[in-house]
């Protein structure tokens, strides 16, 4: 098989399919990315992935190429894993990369081929790509497009790919797609992962619906946290109490700075845009509110920071712990932490940032912040500390020892993960989103 597109999703998928015993070629138009992966170097931070990559290159189950002709000759199963970013100036998804793959690959295919789409796409895309493929396919060859959405989380990408909690395959044909999927995913299926076979449109929608639900759940608790702050309640025990009801469930009820990353924000926007195109925009107008609640948390955090200095941040030394969109990731795309750090800086604060993995990426987007070499260096002489990404390193900070580093022990817990009593006992004045302390 080939995996076309070796970004976060594709590089992980290629390495993990090889780990499952398949012979895999990773393909990308980016020469630097391919050269790095071929050397066994993962160009982003993902725990466990470098070892899987190295092991499978050494076992000669995994190779890389930039050549579509080579890819077409190599396999009859092709995974499509290129990005579908938000279009500039619009909420819609940019499908140019997926379309480019079809245009480049399909004319070179011979015999019978199956393309498994993994990218997150607006509903209807797979049928459109099948129409494109039918136009482009060489005489005597055949191509069937099926949709096989990916649900991996950054930070758990290897585990989520090798033992996913479900495998969804959508197809429009009558061929043996299910048999091919069963062969590819034989190992997780033998371990009990359910396989759900459906039509193309349903498979495409499963992915965006799942992400829209997760985003909604986070914004729900963040909306409740706005009320908690005003009413003098505490969102942390509240979330615990409602989460015990297994119809609700405790996961994704973490109130705080909200969601970011390369998936949830863009996926809910593309879902709204697609609903509008389909004439059903009312069905998803609530996602606008989900987005707005999420963005308001960042503003609220900046307002809390201003209030900590009586209204003005001018010249104040603020330390922001974390700039990745979540822990165990170096991804800063739409990161709430980096957004807060940037806003504080634009409001006149002297912002010092430390993140165990995210700083190289953050420097490219926000070069004007002061990136410290360590948490200790970032904290030294701070007048306000904001916990913005809940890395374990920050959760493990000792309140008394940290108080000794700063010039004023004032803390905002933007992720509601710290032991407030311990920090208060360590001499800190503590504020948190959704909690009246
Ligand atoms: C998400 C989906 O989980 C995954 O299934 C999909 O394939 C891609 O999008 P990911 O972007 O890696 O994965 O991050 P996830 O772990 O879902 O977290 C998303 C964001 O929500 C993060 O910014 C996180 O900090 C935030 N979050 C999560 C909360 O604010 N509160 C929570 O309770 C949980």
Automatic annotation (TrEMBL):
Domain annotation UDP-glucose/GDP-mannose dehydrogenase C-terminal: ranges: 319-420
Leading EC class: oxidoreductase
Entry keywords, A to Z: NAD, Oxidoreductase
UniProt GO BP: polysaccharide biosynthetic process; UDP-glucuronate biosynthetic process
GO MF term set: NAD binding; UDP-glucose 6-dehydrogenase activity
Sequence positions that bind substrate: 151-154, 207, 252-256, 260, 326
Database matches in SMART domains: UDPG_MGDP_dh_C
Name recorded for this polypeptide: UDP-glucose 6-dehydrogenase
Organism whose genome encodes this protein: Corynebacterium flavescens
Lineage: Bacteria, Bacillati, Actinomycetota, Actinomycetes, Mycobacteriales
